[in-house]
């Protein structure tokens, strides 16, 4: 049976790789240097190169020149780099793997050739070593494609100890990843990587193990490598990544789930009544859903459509007959009506479902028709333009909830009186720069502090800047002066959306030790760079802001509601939660010098979902996302 299972799995991977290969070429340059003229010889780089070459060929990569390369001199390495850059087409994937001695100096990293006798100080590196930056410059000229660089090259600084003042560093240094590039280091800046006692270095050994599941995103594979290496070295070696990919990269594309038939859902037709009084709960949360209003028979409804669940959303598998927990549905009108790039989040309230089927039904994405209303219809918005302007938005149908105080205790019960939508992601530099390019946002281009722009959340923006962005976005979408114009969320809306119907300290549970798997916060690794900030003892893969969507969404499909950057809200600052209106509207004061920010950021480790702060100027940990009132 194991042989049969292995054959089937191998066939599936081969077919998937063959399909991907038709869409693009994937070319790899693989070098392993171990036998040096002057520097200490290394045990495993040649084995590492052989292992990588074998695995990448299995995954459909072409090897530059038809082979990997062992113990390469400076002239040979220069020729390999030149040929490789000419072999890779504009839209191809270029993969570079180097194992051997490496040196960080002059703002870049250097691959050391085996004929290294002339490298006496860091000043000699430009003449007798190969710069990773020069290789990246060649690949950047394509103005397209994907570049993946893996450097298992931090074994030690091979220069004599009396040359420390010449500009070389211990291990490799950080490099800025150009657009469309992913760079992985065997160890973080300042560390050296272990050569390993087995057939491979520790980094490559863990990478080979992680590539046994090649249908995961690249960043997940490297996270698995990081955890494995840290565990084996008790934290003495931690792999490091820099990336600016435009799309997720997969060595093998994951298989798509087959379409699933969904039970028809009847929309709620009456306002939700407040729940009856209940005994205090240990969690301090009001979690019992209101009783479902009377529903009309659903027999006359059309059959439920067959749809596929969006990748970012998890389906719920359950048997349809009566159950103690509500069945929720995730709705994407933009996929069916073409009117708005807005998805509807599941709400923690019961909804009626079709009569029970004899077999369990997987509840996936479905389309729910809203009840008739006398309110004027919302202006139609081109979904593509909305997505290009502020990204996808998640529609939310709120039910009564209790806010969480900074202490973690339950506070006032709030009943938000309207439906609203919230940006799936924080506003990014790409979105902001589009505003400036079109003459908006006061012409202000906020600094990215050297972290890179693109899909990272915009930061260093003040309150007035957020209002300028919203003015531009509403004008672009034709929403200026409309009741459903884009705006900042109120504090109550933000918290309800962040909670996503959960009753725990965080939307993912009560254990703070799990936070690194869900958010970019001040972790153990960041605490080493910023020792003045309290840090949690886990690793979230980033020291400073991460590209939006780098972590799994909450139950409503919203990303980065904890960490990454704190987010502006409409509310004027007050130390007391009592200023949150019972209807969820914004707290407005005659003099509003400060506004409430929510969510924490990469600089802090939130204690609970009640994390809030006072915002008064643009900082390197403060951004925002957009909201919109729905009819």
Question: Can you describe what's shown?
Answer:
The chain is α/β, with parallel strands linked by helices. The chain has three domains: 2-243, Rossmann fold; 257-270 and 281-314 and 326-332 and 363-368, no CATH class; 383-631, paralog of FGE (formylglycine-generating enzyme) (Alpha-Beta Complex). Helices cover 22% and strands 16% of the residues. Strands 1, 2, 3, 4, 8, 10 and 11 form a seven-stranded mixed sheet that branches. Helix 6 (202-210) crosses helix 7 (218-233). The longest helix has 22 residues, at 2-23. It is elongated. Mean pLDDT is 76; it is low at 1-23, 161-170, 257-340 and 349-379.
Secondary-structure map:
Blueprint lengths: L1 H22 L2 E7 L12 H14 L3 E2 L5 E2 L3 H14 L5 E7 L2 E4 L2 E4 L13 H4 L1 E2 H9 L5 E7 L15 E2 L11 E5 L16 H9 L7 H16 L6 E4 L16 E2 L3 E2 L39 E2 L8 E3 L14 H4 L5 E3 L7 E2 L7 E3 L19 H8 L2 E4 L4 E4 L5 E5 L4 E5 L5 H9 L25 H15 L8 E2 L3 H9 L24 H6 L36 E7 L22 E4 L13 E4 L6 E2 L3 E4 L1
Parallel strand pairs: 1-2, 1-3, 1-4, 4-8, 8-10, 16-19, 24-27
Antiparallel strand pairs: 5-6, 5-9, 6-7, 10-11, 12-14, 13-17, 15-18, 19-22, 20-21, 22-28, 23-28, 24-25, 25-26
Helix pairs in contact: 6-7
Number of distinct beta strands: 28
CATH architecture assignment of the largest domain: Alpha-Beta Complex
Beta-strand proportion? 15-25%
Count of alpha/pi helices: 13
Q: Label the structural class.
A: alpha/beta
Overall shape: elongated
Please give the alpha-carbon distance between the first and last residues. 57 Å
């Amino acid at each position: 049976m194991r042989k049969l299972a292995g054959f089937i799995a191998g066939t599936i991977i081969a077919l998937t790789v063959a399909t991907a290969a038709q869409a693009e070429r994937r070319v790899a340059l693989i070098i392993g240097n171990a036998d040096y003229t002057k520097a200490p010889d290394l045990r495993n780089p040649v084995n590492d190169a052989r292992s990588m070459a074998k695995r990448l060929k299995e995954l459909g990569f072409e090897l530059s020149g038809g082979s990997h390369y062992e113990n390469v001199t400076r002239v040979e390495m220069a020729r390999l780099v030149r040929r490789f850059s000419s072999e890779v087409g504009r839209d191809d994937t270029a993969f570079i793997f180097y194992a051997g001695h490496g040196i960080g100096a002059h703002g870049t990293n250097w691959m050391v050739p085996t004929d290294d006798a002339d490298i006496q100080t860091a000043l000699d590196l430009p003449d007798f070593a190969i710069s990773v930056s020069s290789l990246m410059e060649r690949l950047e000229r394509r103005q397209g494609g994907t570049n993946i660089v893996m450097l298992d090259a931090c074994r030690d600084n091979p220069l004599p100890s009396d040359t420390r003042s010449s500009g070389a560093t211990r291990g490799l240094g950080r490099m800025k990843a150009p657009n469309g590039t992913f760079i992985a280091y065997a160890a973080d800046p300042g560390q050296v990587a272990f050569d390993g006692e087995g057939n491979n270095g520790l980094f490559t050994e863990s990478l080979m193990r992680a590539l046994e599941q090649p249908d995961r995103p690249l960043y997940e594979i490297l996270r698995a490598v990081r955890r494995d290496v840290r565990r084996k070295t008790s934290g003495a070696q931690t792999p490091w990544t820099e990336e600016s990919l435009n799309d997720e990269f997969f060595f093998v594309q994951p298989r798509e789930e087959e379409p699933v038939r969904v039970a028809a859902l009847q929309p709620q037709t009456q306002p939700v009544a407040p729940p009856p009084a209940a005994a205090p709960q240990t969690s301090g949360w009001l979690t019992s859903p209101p009783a479902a209003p009377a529903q009309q028979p659903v027999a006359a409804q059309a059959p439920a459509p067959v749809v596929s669940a969006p990748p970012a959303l998890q389906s719920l598998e359950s048997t349809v007959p009566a159950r103690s927990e509500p069945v929720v549905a995730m709705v994407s009108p933009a996929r069916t009506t073409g009117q708005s790039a807005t998805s509807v989040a599941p709400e923690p309230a019961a909804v009626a479902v079709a009569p029970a089927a004899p077999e369990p039904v997987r509840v996936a994405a479905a389309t729910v028709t809203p009840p008739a209303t006398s309110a004027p219809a919302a202006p139609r918005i081109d979904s593509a333009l909305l997505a290009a302007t502020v990204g996808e938005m998640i529609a939310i149908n709120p039910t009564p909830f209790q806010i969480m105080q900074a202490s973690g205790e339950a506070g006032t019960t709030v009943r938000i009186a309207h439906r609203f939508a919230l940006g799936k992601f924080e506003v990014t530099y790409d979105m902001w720069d589009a505003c400036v390019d079109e003459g908006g946002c006061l012409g202000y281009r906020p600094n990215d502090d050297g972290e890179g722009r693109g899909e990272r959340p915009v930061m260093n923006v003040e309150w007035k800047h957020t209002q300028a962005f919203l003015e531009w976005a509403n004008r672009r979408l034709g929403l200026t002066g409309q009741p459903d114009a884009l705006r900042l969320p109120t504090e109550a809306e933000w918290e309800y959306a962040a909670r996503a119907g959960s009753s725990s300290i965080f939307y993912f549970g009560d254990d703070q030790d799990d936070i690194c798997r869900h958010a970019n916060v001040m972790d153990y690794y960041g605490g080493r760079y910023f020792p003045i900030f309290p840090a949690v003892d886990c690793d979230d893969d980033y020291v400073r802001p991460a590209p939006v969507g780098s972590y799994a969404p909450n139950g409503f499909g919203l990303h980065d509601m904890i960490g990454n950057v704190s987010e502006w809200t409409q509310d004027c600052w007050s130390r007391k939660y009592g200023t949150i209106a019972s209807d969820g509207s914004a707290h407005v004061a005659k003099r509003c010098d400060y506004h409430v920010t929510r969510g924490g950021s990469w600089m802090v480790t939130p204690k609970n979902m009640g994390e809030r702060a006072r915002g008064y100027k643009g900082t390197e940990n403060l951004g925002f996302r957009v909201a919109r009132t729905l009819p």
